[in-house]
Predict the structure.
Amino acid sequence: MSEYKYVGKRLPRYDGMQHATASTRFVGDIKLPGMLYVKSWRSPVPSARIRNIDISKAQRVAGVAAVITHKDVPNNLVSDFPVLAEHEVRFMGQDVVAVAAVDEDTAMEAIEQVRVDLEEREPVLDPFKAMEPDSPQIRPEGNFLIVGNKNHQPVRKGDVEAGFAQADHIIESYFRTAAHEHAPIETQVGIAQTDAMGRTHIWTVSQAVFFNQGDIAGVLGVPQSKVHMIGGVVGGGFGGKNNLHVDHINAVLSLYTNGRPVKWVWTREEEMIASTHRGVAHFFFKDGVTKDGRIIARKVKNVRDAGAYAQTNAYVIMKQSGAVAGPHPIPNVWIDSYAVFTNKRPVSSMRGFGMYQTSFASEVQIERIAKELGIDSWRIRFINAVHDGDRSATGTELLACSMIETMQLAAERAGIVLDEDMRAMRSSDKREEA
Amino acid sequence: MPQKDVEYFAPKTLEEALQIAGEYGPDISILAGGTDLVRDMNLNFANPKKVLWIGNLGLEYIKERDGYIVIGAATRMQTAGDSELLKKKAAALARAAGKLASPPVRYLATLGGNICTASPAGDTVNAMLGLGAEVLLRSAKGERVVPLAEFFTGPGETVIKPGEILVEIRIKPTGENEGSAYVKMGRRKALTLAVLNVTSRVKLDKQGNCEAAHIAIGAAAPTPVRAVKAEAALVGKPFTDTTIEEAAKIAVTEISPIDDVHGTAWYRRKLTHVFVKRTLREAGGLNGAE
Amino acid sequence: MNYTISFTLNGTPVQVEAPAHINLLTLLREHLDVVSPKFGCAQGNCGACTVHLDGEPVNSCLVLAMTVEGREVTTVEGIGTLREPHPLQVAFYENYGAQCGYCTPGMIMSSVALLQKNPNPTRDDVVNAIVGNVCRCTGYHKIVASVLAAAEQMKTK
């Protein structure tokens, strides 16, 4: 076998020395001639109707180059999310007005001169309350994310009630995972500049440069070729820099600053309050298990606190509804995954993008099953491991499975000696029909 | 709104500083390390029009004078934490200062600043209160010495008058058969506000009776607390597990904790009981952890 | 109202005009174009802004810029460069001490301060020295390994 140059080698990071000598240029380090600084007016309350926005005093502050509201945005909606709020605010911290000024202090001064008349409404903060028929409706489309023609994402396999009837044990659990904020050390930051040919250049920290490019082009009402994204240097993202935060608002502002670039650096407070977070997930499990430890029926109701806007919620509950049945060939499955809107900051991706929540739930559930039945943690998983040819909860035929082999290798590396029968198992074994 | 046009003073003598402080009174903010004031300015919580920095006044010292340990108000946490004199004769303070926040904060933050910020949860405030410290306040008109036990009037509020500057802290060093101890519960191991902190200072006579006791409890009331009833229950009696337990129980009745994001009142009461016992034992030189 | 602040920056005397309300981080980044110290929180909680003031590690966001008059400020640019890196910087490169690189300047300043004070640190010493520098990417193991490797390297030099 010839010696490889790169494969199997420990290679240094190509940007390692750059980082160590602080020569990496992050977006926040970039300064351009004539650059202006951005601040926004944010809703201090979680739910309110906007009756009036008065920016006249803000516009007159010396050193202010531009003040924009929804009126100044060519196309103010990205899916269901306004670039700048128009009729209402649906979460505390939502952007309503943006200012570009000669420095941050002046921008802050201008923001303090903005007057927004809000008619406060009772916020809906509990997704279960939001699911009740008499709850205030957060959106005209209602508080449920509609999937097809349903208010949830369903997964159906077999006959779950028949499965429960056949089972020797019923194990019910409730799980809840917390909301998380990515808290990258670099906060949301971006620079935008629209040149004399109408092309907008955006220095971005986005993790989803091309998704965002498309959305920004839509906001500006221009072809994608008119939006130039300059990205790739990010001070930590973890999923928190997938959605639009500063780039679209900066891009709009840059239309009104006569070619001067605008830069927006979020404070840590803004990051904590208004940036996308990982969403809270609630799981209600009911499993039917035979006395020899096989899960033969699983029913799960999953409620995702979806925050105020659609964002990526459909994607998450689609994933969660498939994954929460676990890597197990359960013959009878009934999953209902809900995304329910509340008056909170939008939720979106974070490391696993919905899978951290389902893995937590299904893994703790199988531990409870193991405890209830007095079966060892490893064995319960071998008993319930997927084999080649099994069908997932959504009906996909699974091939080239490796759960069994992975567990065997993990045990070996952890110095755990599994029983002979577990060591002898293979994913390719044909399963006896139940 | 951020204050532009801030006027800055960095006098080189105390006399000059006192004269400036006297002239502007409540309109001037006294800057020590900046870990509270500059942070507040960063976050738009404070917008002073005038700032006086005490960094050039020779107020960084730790030494013994006339039977006291005297500490300049601008002495930094890291210095106090490293001080052999404090470790030996005011151990609770060296402990509290040496672990406060994080190294980059400790090289800026000052003991005087911690006292003047007057948070009920202040770590070195707790240690100095438990050691029985007094502070020297000076103004252009004169000076006065105030025991720390009489210094705090509310959260963030003190008896300092406009025109006065806290310049020195005085602590009676612990001697033979005397010791001090400090313990703090935080939600993590560094850069964390106290959920509760306790300092005890104990002096025993040759028979093992308690001659003097100080117990200070922080983050458990609107001001830092001296558990005077618990202290009185110890003095003149043998210093034993029984009297320590009794004092700890009494100390719990002398605090008025609340539920907040850092902890519950219930938990603070539990911690007070445990920490008062623990620090009394350590300060009194009793062998074996509880 | 602007003041003139004169101080030594990475060994070179500098003079800059600035208002009195700004902190040292802003002075360095906005007025002097020294961008190695980073903005992370403005509260002294993340350490991304760590520099040396008279040789001691401090959060530059908590230093009122005016107070550095006549004093010495050191940033990563004064520790080493791509051409002549400090052994600690080489150690960060060889031991994967950086991922996104944003916390790295602060880590370097805190670690250099440690090694100047204690050339033979234990693992605990390193952890305690960087406790004020938050990293969200690495989980810290490789950062500690980098500092220990540098200490080892610098001893044999």
In short: The beta strands of chain C are 2-9, 12-19, 50-53, 56-59, 72-74. Helices of chain C lie at 24-31, 87-94, 104-117, 123-129, 141-156. Residues 8 and 72 of chain C are 5 Å apart (CA to CA).
